[in-house]
Structure formats: structure tokens, C-alpha cells
Design the sequence.
């Protein structure tokens, strides 16, 4: 028995099907590829929630949902965006009255819970004496719903929930991060891609006095300067080609809370100047606007680059570096904390079991041995993907066997030697060298010249070591020369 109807509006059929698979067991799912099809459905069907992609043919998701609000005010409106994240948006901050932003890539269990909340809110609106006049959500009720979600998030992202070996290197890292929660100070988290920098930033935010306020995320390496400025600072209609409406920036949405600027090392010098001014003056001026607006936002930034070296090379502003680096925290790579792997793997498996509705009881001993021996150049993110794949491949509800491991993880050639075993000194040195090269290649986004410079090798020498350790398969295959 379904608990409501959800309309999905997305012009990509694969996205439609992915969303439908997650929601279909619990809701009646209606599909539309464009605004016209969606309007026809809304005119003839009772819909409790609308899940709309931001990019659609002919009209943006925000523009369409503004029209929906005026014509069909009852459904709870949500939007999927591939560019930025703000899970704690206060309802009513924009004209479309969007209840929730959901970012790509979304997690099935999180998406399902968000849609459940939206449908519950719809029914709350319909109860006698419920949400407010004309069956429209009152901002007070929505704010209470979002406040409850923040309390749940605060529990979810507590430091104690970060899985780690109680005797491993993460103990010191977490102790340092806990100190940052007590002071309103800028934090710079460094570490390899996929190591969990965002998770640590969330723990710092929700453990601080700002924990009941918004936590907003932007990947600074994903957008060109003009779009990044619009995302962070906002813009007025007509400020640039494609600016068809006023846009509230993420700094303003994060007012009172925290903004997490991921991949800060990827920004251009021109953008760095503008960000520095925002941090110095504590105010923003949207693109095309005549006046600035004061903001109260804590900044946590993250990078997989060596920013001090970037400063020395003239690629990152020294004054901005000092602004961001008031409280530095380094997050060790997974290869540096192998004792964490069994606990993290079990935690990931429990999450994947819930998402995929499986009951896999754990890992066979040989499987866990190989998971612990592998280098993991992609860190926790790669481990998560590997376990997801194994669960999909498993045909029975029994411990995951080593035969389910992918070739790069399961093969002994892809594993670092166990230093407590009978390996020779040469084996140990080569294993450490392999880890160092794999990590540097990831940090340099596969750029051989940059990686060779950091490692003190020639490009020819580095390419020879890549071939020797078979890193093309492990790190991704394609490299820039």
C-alpha cells in the first residue's frame, strides 16, 4: 500500500528510473520529462510531493516550481541540483517556496527519508486546524520540521559516530577537531580525496554553537568563476548571460551557520581576491547588486593540495591562505590508518544493506585481510564503492567472499605487504613507495608532471614506476602528461 503520489520531473530517462526505483515501493510515482508533461499530470492527478531537476528543457526547476506554487499550491516542492548543497534551507527564502534542496549524487536512503518527510508535511497541511490557511505550509511549521531534521543530523554527525580505531592516528585528529568546535575560528582541513574531509567538517559544525543553524556545502573546483560567484554570493536578474532571476547565494543561506568550501585549492587567483574581501569585510555583494549585505558565517575549507607549496608557486594568495588556515587539521589517508578499515567496512556494509534491502552478515576472513592489505588510493570513497559492488554481486545472504572483490583489490599484486609478516625490507620499501605514488597521483588529479615534481622524480621515472606497480588500473587509468 502506497502512502502518496510523487511527481518526478527530469528530462534524463536514467535519472527518472533511478529515482523511481528508490520511491516506487512506498509511493505512486508519476514521471514527466518536461514542464508541459508535468502540468498535464498536475491538472489531472492528486500529487503530494514534486521532485524536480534544476536543469530542464526551456525552463529552470526554480522557475517552474514558482509557477507551480501559484497554480497548484498544495504539493510540497523539492528540487535536485548538481552544483551545490544546502540541506538546511529555511522554507520561504526564495520565491519558489522550495522545501528542500537535494544534491547529486544523492543517497537512496537519504532521498527516501526526505520524500517521506515531504509527504508527511503535505498530510499535516490537510489536517483540520493544521498548518494554515488555504492549505499552504506556514513558515513556522516548516521551520519546526527543519529544526527537527537538524537535531537528527546533529546526532548523526557527532564525533563519536566517526568510525575509527581507538588506538589509531584518527584519535589525535578527532581530538584536534573537537577543540575547533568551541571557538568561532576558520578551519582548513587537508587530506587526500575521499578521506572524509566533509564528514569531519560536519562534525565540527554540529558540535559547535552554530550546530542548530544551516550547514552549506560548495565544491569550488566544479564551477567556472562566474557561476561560482553566483552560487556563493548570489546574483541579480540579468547580471550575466543566463541569469534569468534573482539568486540567493550560499553565504546568505548559511547566515548564522557554517559554509564548507571544498577543493578551495582549485580556485583561480581572480576568485581568491573576491573571497578574501568577503572574509575580511564579513559581507557579500551579489553579482549585479548595488549594495552589500552583512553576513555571519563560519568558514571551513578543505583541499587535497599542499596550499603552502601553492602559495610559494604563486598559485594561491598568501593572505587568503592565512585567513583560511587559522586552525589547520590534517586528515590521514586510509592507507595511513589501516586499523580503521575493518570498522569502516562493517559500517559501510550496514549502510549498504539498508539501502539495498539486503542482509549480508559480514565479510569472510580472507576478504577482510585483502581489504586491509589494499592501498586504497581513493580512500573511504573507493572502499564504499567496492563494498557496494560486492553486495550487488553477492547471490546469497552470507559473508562476502574474496571472489567478489574486484580485480584491483582482490589480487595480491594490488595489496601492500603486511608489515608484521615475513616480508623483506625491499618488499616493505616498495609497498611504501607504491602508497606514496598512488596518493600523490590522486592529489595531483593524475597530472604526471605535477606529481613528478612533488615526488622529486623525472616524468620518465614516474611513468616507469606507475607501470611497475600497475597503478594505471588502481588509480584510474588516464593521466595528463
Sequence:
Amino acid at each position: 500500500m502506497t502512502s502518496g503520489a510523487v511527481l518526478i520531473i527530469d528530462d534524463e530517462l536514467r535519472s527518472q528510473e533511478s529515482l523511481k526505483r528508490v520511491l516506487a515501493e512506498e509511493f505512486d510515482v508519476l514521471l514527466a520529462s518536461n514542464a508541459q508533461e508535468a502540468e498535464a499530470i498536475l491538472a489531472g492527478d492528486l500529487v503530494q510531493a514534486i521532485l524536480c531537476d534544476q536543469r530542464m528543457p526551456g525552463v529552470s526547476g526554480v522557475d517552474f516550481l514558482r509557477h507551480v506554487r501559484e497554480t497548484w499550491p498544495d504539493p510540497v516542492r523539492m528540487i535536485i541540483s548538481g552544483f551545490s548543497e544546502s540541506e538546511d534551507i529555511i522554507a520561504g527564502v526564495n520565491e519558489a517556496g522550495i522545501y528542500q534542496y537535494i544534491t547529486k549524487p544523492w543517497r537512496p536512503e537519504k532521498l527516501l527519508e526526505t520524500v517521506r518527510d515531504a509527504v508527511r508535511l503535505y498530510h499535516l497541511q490537510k489536517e483540520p486546524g493544521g498548518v494554515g490557511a488555504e492549505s499552504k505550509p506556514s513558515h513556522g511549521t516548516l521551520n519546526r520540521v527543519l529544526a527537527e531534521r537538524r537535531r537528527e543530523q546533529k546526532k548523526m554527525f557527532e564525533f563519536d559516530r566517526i568510525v575509527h580505531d581507538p588506538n589509531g592516528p584518527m584519535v589525535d585528529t578527532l581530538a584536534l577537531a573537537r577543540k575547533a568546535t568551541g571557538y568561532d575560528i576558520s578551519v582548513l582541513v587537508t587530506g587526500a580525496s575521499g578521506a572524509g574531509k566533509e564528514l569531519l567538517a560536519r562534525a565540527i559544525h554540529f558540535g559547535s554553537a552554530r550546530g542548530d543553524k544551516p550547514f552549506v556545502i560548495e565544491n569550488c573546483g566544479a564551477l567556472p568563476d562566474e557561476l561560482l560567484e553566483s552560487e556563493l554570493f548570489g546574483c541579480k536578474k540579468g547580471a550575466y548571460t543566463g541569469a534569468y532571476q534573482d539568486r540567493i547565494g550560499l553565504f546568505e543561506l548559511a547566515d548564522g551557520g557554517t559554509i564548507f568550501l571544498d577543493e578551495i585549492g582549485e580556485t583561480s587567483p581572480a576568485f581568491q581576491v573576491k573571497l578574501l574581501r568577503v572574509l575580511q569585510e564579513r559581507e557579500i555583494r551579489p553579482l549585479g547588486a548595488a549594495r552589500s549585505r552583512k553576513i555571519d558565517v563560519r568558514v571551513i575549507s578543505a583541499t587535497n593540495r599542499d596550499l603552502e607549496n601553492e602559495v610559494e608557486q604563486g598559485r594561491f594568495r598568501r593572505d587568503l591562505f592565512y585567513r583560511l588556515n587559522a586552525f589547520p587539521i590534517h586528515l590521514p589517508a586510509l592507507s595511513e590508518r589501516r586499523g580503521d578499515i575493518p570498522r569502516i567496512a562493517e559500517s559501510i556494509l550496514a549502510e549498504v544493506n539498508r539501502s539495498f534491502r539486503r542482509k549480508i552478515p559480514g565479510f569472510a576472513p580472507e576478504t577482510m585481510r585483502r581489504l586491509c592489505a589494499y592501498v586504497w588510493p581513493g580512500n573511504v570513497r573507493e572502499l564504499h564503492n567496492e563494498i557496494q559492488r560486492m553486495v550487488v554481486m553477492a547471490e546469497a545472504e552470507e559473508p562476502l567472499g574474496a571472489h567478489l572483490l574486484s580485480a584491483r583489490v582482490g589480487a595480491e599484486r594490488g595489496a601492500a605487504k603486511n608489515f608484521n609478516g615475513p616480508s623483506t625490507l625491499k618488499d616493505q620499501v616498495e609497498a611504501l613507495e607504491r602508497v606514496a605514488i598512488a596518493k600523490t597521483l590522486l592529489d595531483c588529479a593524475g597530472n604526471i608532471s605535477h606529481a613528478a615534481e612533488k615526488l622529486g622524480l623525472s616524468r620518465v621515472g614516474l611513468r616507469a614506476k606507475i607501470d611497475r606497480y600497475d597503478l594505471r588500473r588502481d588509480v584510474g587509468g588516464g593521466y595528463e602528461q
